[in-house]
């Protein structure tokens, strides 16, 4: 009997080892929560930046998608298409950092602003989109990303803001040029 018992002990150990190894590979809700709890928490200012930047990006994307359907000017539609491409990339970068800190809720666009654009068409849409989204939105975004790049607490978020700032600054310059071109015509 002791031979059978000692022969089965390695088998039991092997089964337990395989079970533990398998369990380590399968994401478990409790384990995932534990890893989120272990990640460093963001300062209130960094959390606010993520929220504000997320909303600005979501608003830019939603408004630019509307512009593809509602704008009359070719330059406005081209600007909107560029904003969709660039802001999608920027949003992905911020989403990665947010998820590392346990923030998984997707950003929500400014519904009042999007609502104010939805029923506009043609030149009326172009004017409102350029003023409210392209120029004003990017002006605010430049200030937001500049502040985070200079005084953010989280190094990854600060680096992401620094990397995004030249892109957003360029968008602001493009928006100002577009506004001047539309005013001249």
UniProtKB/TrEMBL annotation:
It comes from the Bacteria. InterPro entries: DUF4142, Ferritin-like. The lineage of its organism: Bacteria, Pseudomonadati, Pseudomonadota, Betaproteobacteria, Burkholderiales. Residues 1-31 form the signal peptide. It comes from Caballeronia cordobensis (Burkholderia cordobensis). Keywords: Signal. This is Membrane protein. It holds the Pfam family DUF4142. Residues 45-178 form the DUF4142 domain. Transmembrane segments: none annotated. Gene3D superfamilies: 1.20.1260.10.
